[in-house]
Design brief:
Blueprint (H helix, E strand, L loop, with lengths): L1 H31 L18 H35 L4 H10 L5
């Protein structure tokens, strides 16, 4: 008789938390699926579909335009600096007397 009572007690101790967990999950599902909650797709949307993606694409496009504008003008700056600083450039030869302190 003691072994039967022990088996029933163990079974109830195991089933008690399981049944209460199932009950809590059932109540939570009922609360989440209640009629007070509204479906965001049935009423007026705050933003149009794809709004966030469109903003991200616009940001990427602005970044690409900035990189292209700076990247395309950089070789011209380097070429101009190299040409002006070259001792054989016509600009450097023409103004070398002026820069050295002598007048033409």
């Amino acid at each position: 008789m003691n072994s039967l009572l022990f088996m029933v007690a163990v079974t109830l101790l195991w089933l008690g938390p399981a049944v209460s967990l199932v009950g809590i999950v059932g109540l939570a599902r009922r609360w989440f699926h209640s009629s007070k909650r509204r479906n965001p797709l049935t009423r007026g949307l705050l933003r149009g579909p794809g709004h966030t993606l469109r903003e991200q694409l616009d940001d990427l496009l602005a970044d690409m335009m900035a990189y292209l504008s700076v990247g395309s003008s950089m070789p011209l700056f380097v070429l101009g600096a190299r040409t002006v600083d070259s001792p054989t450039s016509p600009i450097c030869q023409k103004f070398s007397r002026f820069w050295s302190g002598r007048r033409m």
